[in-house]
User: Fold Outer membrane protein beta-barrel domain-containing protein from Mesonia aestuariivivens.
Amino acid sequence: MRSIVIFFLTLFGGFSASAQHALDFGLGASVNVGLQNEWAVQLKSQYHFNEKWSLFADYNLFFRRDVNTQNTEKYHEIALGGSYHVIHYQSIKIYTGLAYVFNDFPIQENNPDTSSLYKNSGTVNHLAKIQLLGTLPLGEKVLLFSEINLKSAGRRYDTFSFGLIYRLNS
Assistant:
């Protein structure tokens, strides 16, 4: 956990504190759209450097429960990308973004829901994702978020996430 916090701090450490508009940290849960027995704990950070654009980093720790062998497998995923604020309706904000994703999933190439739009280098997969994120303020600095992530590896790897965000600056 400590190394993840250090990673996020170093990722955003190069930006000037006086120039930043907002810095968000969040915690949530993800469920896999294509596989019901797979879920994840998500840590996210988002740096808003102006009114429309932001940079984000997501870390997901996936758990897959194999019912037959009573075994739980763990996989890691990190996404780095940018998003654009597209809609503001009352207090709801909608963002869309693109990201580079790397993970250690065992991708099943013969599955009909798997595409060929990814690169495998040893035990690490490299792919892209399109993110649609919505936020709803619950208080002055706390927001509720939900997002859908469409990944280039195929429908089996798409995820839906929800959770809470804490905004440091605004």
Q: What stands out?
A: The chain has one helix and nine strands. Helices lie at 2-12. Residues 14-18 have pLDDT under 50 and may be disordered. The chain has one domain: 20-167.
